[in-house]
Design goal:
The chain starts with a helix and ends with a helix. The protein is globular. The longest helix is centred in the middle third of the chain and has 24 residues. Helix 5 crosses helix 6 and helix 7 packs antiparallel against helix 9. It is built from 11 helices and 9 strands. A 9-stranded mixed sheet has the order 1-2-3-5-4-6-7-8-9, sandwiched between helices. A hairpin with a 2-residue loop joins strand 1 and strand 2. It has 337 residues and is α/β, with parallel strands linked by helices.
């Protein structure tokens, strides 16, 4: 009965957003041009598959970047030019809200969920301050002031354009690493990262490629990026655009380069501490994918703690569930750092 109640509640909350757009399907090969001629130029699908496989095989290079030299901080708003340029000028200036605290050199990069509003996770950052941690709330690509003209939502961050979605996630990972550069320049030396939903995916990939991160709080977890988009209720409109143009197996293959499961092995042998949070009645991150993630952590022997919230994905942000979630993440990061 509880399952039916929460599933009904989740679907009602998902329907609040009435401005979702059906965008045309596109392989988006032009979004990964710098990876040379690894595929057949006369076969876009084969070309993209080869390029993204090469990116996965050489992920250290794929998620590398030139050091940022134009950090500016004004009124606690940090801005810098993204090391990964996109076709949209408004998206090429990264921004982050800075919440300093007397933290003894400890700082946390905070990555909100897909389509978080401008105030999303601000109170969570203030709570991190209360727990003695500095927070830097980083806007994801195509969010906040980074939204291109004509877009009401962050449609280009996750969409039926395969290559552009990869590019956006790569941009987010690189910006997270650049944000740590800035924090380090301010004297911080112990770093954590906190990500929610899409932000959780970005956080894990960032941790896997950034040795300065020693703790991560992953708020909603899954194995494969493609499966969440294909099956989750939040991305039903994206799947609708893809249906008939690509299979789930093909999409999973393309998007392995932005899938958490691809990088868990990189955490073996490190001292990274992880908090895995999931929701029992989640319809956005299907629960079988969550269980796969937890099992992979166990199988690989990765240090982790787990919290199962008695709610769903959307209802995590409602009432007592929101406070249980936030309190668990703040306590974990305080102790781990």
């Amino acid at each position: 009965m509880l399952r039916r109640l929460f599933h009904f509640w989740e679907k009602r909350l998902a329907l609040r957003d009435t401005n979702r757009r059906l965008l045309p399907f596109d392989l988006g090969v032009e979004w990964v041009p710098e990876w040379g001629s690894g595929g057949d130029g006369d076969n876009p699908a084969a070309h993209l598959r080869a390029e993204l496989q090469r990116a996965l095989d050489h992920s250290d290079q794929f998620f590398s970047y030139s050091p940022v030299k134009d950090f500016t901080l004004a009124d606690h708003l940090l801005r810098f030019r993204s090391p990964v340029a996109s076709a949209y000028e408004s998206n090429n200036v990264a921004q982050a809200r800075y919440f300093p605290a007397d933290s003894k050199g400890r700082a946390v990069v905070v990555l909100p969920q897909w389509n978080a509003d401008r105030q999303g996770h601000m109170n969570l950052c203030r709570m991190l301050n209360f727990f003695g941690l500095t927070a830097l709330r980083l806007s994801l690509p195509y969010h906040d002031d980074r939204t291109p003209p004509g877009c009401e939502r962050a449609d280009y961050m996750v969409s039926s354009n395969v290559g552009r979605t990869v590019h956006a996630c790569r941009q987010a990972v690189v910006e997270g690493r650049a944000a740590i550069d800035w924090l380090q320049s301010q004297g911080y030396h112990r770093f954590g990262i906190l990500g929610t939903s899409l932000g959780s995916c970005i956080a894990l990939i960032t941790t896997a490629h950034e040795p300065r991160i020693s703790a991560q709080a992953l708020n909603h977890i899954s194995t494969y990026f493609a499966d969440v988009v294909w099956r989750g209720i939040s991305t039903a409109h994206v799947q609708q655009s893809m249906a008939g143009n690509i299979t789930l197996e093909e999409l999973r293959d393309y998007w392995r380069v932005i899938s958490p499961a691809s990088y868990l092995g990189r955490l073996q042998g490190t001292s990274v501490q992880t908090l895995l949070i999931h929701a029992r009645y989640d319809l956005t991150f299907p629960t079988d994918l969550t269980k796969q993630t937890i099992e992979l952590f166990r199988k690989l022997g990765l240090p982790h703690r787990r919290l199962c919230l008695p709610c769903g994905h959307y209802t995590t942000g409602v009432g007592i569930f929101k406070w249980l979630d936030a309190l668990a993440m703040c306590r974990f990061l305080r102790d781990a750092l």
